[in-house]
């Protein structure tokens, strides 16, 4: 039975709580080069368009689509994670304005916050370390933590629901992200609140078309939305 209060908030990282400044595209370019996909070619442009269209999806799933051979997909994913990690280590990442304060406010209000990503665990940990967020929340999840399937599947949201035990019903979960895949994962999980933010990959029209019940300027508006909804 739902308590009608959102006591579990599942937040995406890159584009939602973390500003990555186009690092996904830069890391993809580095990975593609290692696999012989030359920047400026039609093949490269086509693959980059797919990366942009699938922001939020598990990166290994993206590479499996782009490189039908599993070994090639694994090499591309490894190269991507290494390139992204180098960019993070170079200080090329920051928390979005108000993101940390929002997480701390939600926690102070008695809500459990979980941070999720489409990146591998090693990259997620590198981002958390770079931001000093290792102890910001009690649980962080990547696709491998939820059986290997990332967004748009609902698995990470449902794993957060099961592992935290913070709510009795998925109706008392809020899912927030910047991509259409974030919205799909929230709606497919049955989350009571599914909200898009305009600080990342996709705009209002696309977010709403894929299930966003609310669209916020940034995650900093989330506590106000929950108060307005009485959730």
UniProtKB/TrEMBL annotation:
<dbReference type="InterPro" id="IPR022468">
    <property type="entry name" value="PhnX-like"/>
</dbReference>
<dbReference type="Pfam" id="PF00702">
    <property type="entry name" value="Hydrolase"/>
</dbReference>
<dbReference type="InterPro" id="IPR036412">
    <property type="entry name" value="HAD-like_sf"/>
</dbReference>
<dbReference type="InterPro" id="IPR050155">
    <property type="entry name" value="HAD-like_hydrolase_sf"/>
</dbReference>
<protein>
    <submittedName>
        <fullName>Phosphonatase-like hydrolase</fullName>
    </submittedName>
</protein>
<dbReference type="InterPro" id="IPR023214">
    <property type="entry name" value="HAD_sf"/>
</dbReference>
